[in-house]
């Protein structure tokens, strides 16, 4: 039976397509970065979202909060720090910190927290109805 990790870290280089004409990452770009953090955290258990879905468990976002603190720029290296903070028999809750760890010609002292966030995911079946999570994903 897999064991779910309580925290993890993923690294992303900000791509040009994620930025506005001034080279600042668009606010919508952060959402996929949080997903990268979540999926990497799950992957550390030895399973992927694909495997979970093949077993009939689907995790859907029911709540998403992001607070933006500082801009992230094109070509920055950001670390997505993901924490599994709990949930219930049906829901999983995560918190995130998006941290700039490398920036060309940085004037600020790095690392810099650029954003913090939180999500709640609910487990549903193939028909989209709520169902209980696998036991190993409820108790870490």
Write the layout of secondary structure elements.
Blueprint (H helix, E strand, L loop, with lengths): L6 E7 L16 H14 L5 H6 L3 E11 L8 E11 L3 E12 L9 E13 L10 H4 L2
Overall shape: it is elongated
Compute the gyration radius: what is it?
16 Å
Q: Give, in spatial order, the strands making up the sheet with the most strands.
A: 1-3-4-5-2
Q: Into which percent range does the helicity of residues fall? A: 10-25%
Question: Would you tell me which CATH topology applies?
Answer: Thiol Ester Dehydrase, Chain A
Report the count of strand segments: 5
What is the top-level CATH class? Alpha Beta
CATH superfamily: Hotdog Thioesterase
3D structure, described in words:
The protein is of the alpha+beta class. It is 17% helix and 39% strand. The chain has helices at 30-43, 49-54, 135-138; strands at residues 7-13, 58-68, 77-87, 91-102, 112-124. A 5-stranded antiparallel sheet has the order 1-3-4-5-2. The N and C termini lie close together (11 Å).
